[in-house]
Amino acid sequence: MVDLAQLRDAHLDPLDTAATAYDTLSNNFKKHADDLNTQVLKHLFDGRWVGNAAGAANQAMETTSTRLDAAHTELSCMSGLLREASESFWLAQSKLQEALADAKTAGLTVAEDGKVTWPAPTAAERHDPDYDTPQKAKAISDRIAHAISEADTADQKISKALDDLTTRAKTGAGLNLDNAAADQKAVGQLGKDLLDAGFPPKDAQPTEVNSWWKGLTPDEQQRLIQAHPDLLGNRDGIPAVARNQANLLNLDRLTKEYENKPNPSDDDKQKLAGFRAIRTKLDQAKSNEPPPAFLMAVSDEGQGRGCLSWGNPDTAKNVSAYVPGLGTKLSDVGGKDADRARNVWQAAHNADPTADTASMVWLGYDPPPGPLDGDPKVAEVMLPDRAQKGGDAYDKFMSGLRASHEGAPPHLVALGHSYGSTTVGMAAQQGGGTGADDIILVGSPGTGADRASQLHIDPKHVWVGDAQNDPVSHLPAKERVAADGTGAVIGGKLAGPLGAWTGGEIANELYDDFGDTNDLWFGKDPAAKDFGANRFAVADGAPLSFDSHSNYMEDPKMDVSKDPAKKAELESINNIGQIVAGKYDNVTKQDGR
Questions:
Q1: Highest-confidence range of 196-200, 271-275, 496-500, by mean pLDDT?
Q2: Quick one: average pLDDT of 328-332?
Q3: Cβ 227 vs Cβ 87: under 8 Å
Q4: Residue 260's CB: how many other CB atoms inside 10 A?
Q5: What three-state secondary structure class fits 444?
Q6: Alpha-carbon gap, residue 131 to 244, rounded angstroms
Q7: Which of 95, 188, 508, 529 would you call most buried, defined as having the most Cβ atoms within 10 angstroms of its Cβ?
Q8: What is the pLDDT of residues 238-278, one digit of tens each?
C-alpha cells in the first residue's frame, strides 16, 4: 500500500535507467535475430544442403529465430512497462506535491497519514461569512487522497504485470510469439489506462487542465510532450506553445501513418492532403514576415481536425477564432481558411498596430460537405446537428483560450462564416455562451436564435456582415426568393441540383411555412433590424454569384487601385479588423433589413 511519505519522497529516475537498460538489451536481441536471418539461415539453406539432417537443422534454426523475435518483444514490454510506471508515479507525485504546496500556502498542516488540520479560527474569522478554511482543507485533503490512491493503483497493476512477465521469462512461455504479442498488447493497454488515470479526466474543464499542467515542472511537461503528444496537442487548457510543440509531432506522425496506409480510402487521401497542406503552410510561415504560426490542433478525428493560429493566443491582447462552414476540408486549414485567418490578423493589426493580435482558423467539427464534393451526406447542410456538435466543441475551445491566457484577460472574438456562423450561434446559446467579448457572423443562414440577446452577450457586441447578393444569407427568406423559380436559379448557381432543390422546391412547397420575411433556414435573419445586432457595411457582391458569399475576408493588402469592385470588397475585412481590435467607433455600419 503506497502512503504519503513514499509517494512524496520517491526517486523515480532509477525506473528510467532500468527501462533504458532493457531497451539496450532488446535492441541487441533484435540484432541477433537479424544476423541469424541474414547471415546464417540465408546461407545455410541456399538449396545445396538437403536430406534429413538439413531438415532437422532448418527446424531447429527456425525455432531459434522465432524465440529471438519473441524475446525481443518481451524485453520491449519490460522497458515499456517500466517507463509507464515512471510516468504514472511522477504524475501522481506531481499532483501530491502541488496539493502539499497549496496546503502550505493556505496555512494548513498535513500529517504523514494525509490528515489536514488548521489553526482554530479567530473570533473575527468565526463571524466572517467568507471564512472558508474548512472547505479549502477538505478540497486539498481530497486531492492528496486521490494522488495517493492513483499511485497505489498504478503500483498494484504494474507489480502484477512485472510478475507476469518475469514468470514467462523463467518458464520460457514468453519465447512463444503469440504469448509475446499478447503481452505487448496488454502492456500497451495498461499504459493507456494508467495515463488516462494520471491525466485530468476527459470531461475536465479547461481551467482544471491548465491548473494540472502548471503544476508540472518544465522537465515533466517536456517529457509528456515528447512521449504523448497525442494526449496534449488537442487538449483545451494546455498553453499554445506546448500545444504547438505537441501538434508538430502529431502532424509528422499522422502524415507518415497515412502515407504508409496500404489501401487508402478517399477519406484517407483527403486527410493526408490536409496534413500535407498544413505542413506546407507552416513551412511558408517560417520564412514569411510576422506573425508566427501556432498549430493549436490536428487529428484524424471525423473528417479531420485542425486549428492554425497566426500569433500566440496566450499572450495577444486581441484574439479571434474563425469557424469556417459548408464544404470546408482539412486541407483548407492549410489553404484558403488559413489565409482568411491571416487576413483577419492583418486587418486587426492595421486597426491597432500597438496591440498584439492572434487570429485562428478553427476546424474542430465536421462541416457538411459541399454540394460539388459528391458526398451523399451533402443534404446534412439542411440540418443543425453538425452545428450543434461543433458548438459544444467550440465552447470548450474558447474556454481553453481564456484558461491558458497569460496576464490580463484577452479581448476574445468569435467569428463564424456561413454554416460556421450557425455553429458559433449554437455555441453562444448554450449556458454561459462562448465566453467571447464580440461575436461576428458573416454570410449567415441563421444561428438558431430569434434575437441577438439570446447569444448570451450584449447585443451591441453582436456584429453581422451580409452582402446584399449573398445567396446563402437570403434563402429562403420569403420576399427575396419568389416561388416562380428564382430560387432554383439561385440554387443552381450555388450548387447544381441540391441548390436548385433548396432554392426552388423550398420556395415553392414550403413558402408559407417560413412566416415573415426575416425567417431563414436556421432561424431569424441576423442582418434583420429585429434581430438586434449591429450590421457592418460590406460590398453588395455580384448578383447570383457564389463569390458574394466568399468575399468577406479578402486580403487587406491586395492591390485594388485598378479595380473599384475589389476596393469595395475590402470594407468587410477592414470592419472585421476594427471589431477584433476593439475599435468600434471606426466600424462603418449598414442599416439592418
A1: 271-275
A2: 96
A3: yes
A4: 8
A5: coil
A6: 41
A7: 95
A8: 999 999 999 999 999 999 999 999 999 999 999 999 999 99
**Residue 486: pLDDT over 80:** no
Please give the pLDDT value at position 513: 41
CA angle at 174 for the pair 172 and 177, rounded to the nearest 5°: 120
Can you give 98-134 as a three-state secondary structure string?
HHHHHHHHCCCEECCCCCEECCCCCHHHHCCCCCCHH
Sign, Cα dihedral of 344, 348, 349, 355: negative
What does the alpha-carbon distance between residue 342 and residue 296 come to, in Å, rounded to a whole number?
Answer: 15
Locate all alpha helices (DSSP H) within 412-468, ordered by sequence. Answer: 419-428
- The residue assigned the cell 453538425 is 386
pLDDT, residue 264, reads 95
Q: DSSP H helical segments within 10-51, as ranges?
A: 13-35, 42-44
Cα–Cα distance for residue pair 573/558, rounded to 1 Å: 12
Across 372-379, average pLDDT: 58
**What is the distance between the alpha carbons of residues 35 and 211, in angstroms, rounded to a whole number?**
51
Q: Give residue limits of the domains in the chain.
A: 4-198, 240-471+527-586, 478-517
Residue 563 corresponds to which amino acid? Answer: D
The position carrying cell 493549436 is 296
Of residues 289 and 299, the one with the higher pLDDT is: 299
Rounded Cα distance, 391 and 455, in Å: 12
Give the position of cell 511522477: 90
Residue 526 is classified by DSSP as: T
Give the cell for residue 136. Answer: 479549502
Task: For the chain, state the CA radius of gyration.
Answer: 30
Mean pLDDT (the chain) is 86
Report pLDDT for 503: 44
First to last CA, the chain: 70
Element housing 167 (H / E): helix 133-171
DSSP 203: T
Residue 385 confidence (pLDDT) = 84
Give the alpha-carbon dihedral of 136, 139, 143, 146, to 10 degrees. Answer: 160
Closest CA to 273 of 333, 362, 339, 360: 333
Apex 425 CA angle, 419 and 431, nearest 5 = 145
List alpha helices for 445-550, DSSP H.
Answer: 486-495, 497-500, 506-509
Residues sharing a CB contact under 8 Å with residue 67, sequence separation 6 or more, in sequence order: 175
Place of cell 440577446: 453
Q: Which residue has better confidence, 515 or 171?
A: 171
Orientation angle between helical segments 52-105 and 133-171, nearest 10 degrees: 170
- Report the alpha-carbon distance of residue 415 to residue 436 in Å, rounded: 10
Residue with the three cell numbers 450584449: 458
CA distance 373 to 346: 31
- pLDDT (tens digit, 9 = 90+) per residue, 423-453? 999 999 988 788 999 999 999 988 989 999 9
pLDDT in tens, 66-109: 888 888 888 899 999 998 888 889 889 988 988 999 999 999 99
C-alpha–C-alpha distance, residues 454 and 528, integer Å: 15
CATH of domain 4-198: 1.20.1260
What superfamily in CATH does domain 240-471+527-586 come from? Alpha/Beta hydrolase fold, catalytic domain (3.40.50.1820)
Amino acid identity of residue 108, one-letter, is L
| Cα separation, 353 vs 291, whole angstroms | 12
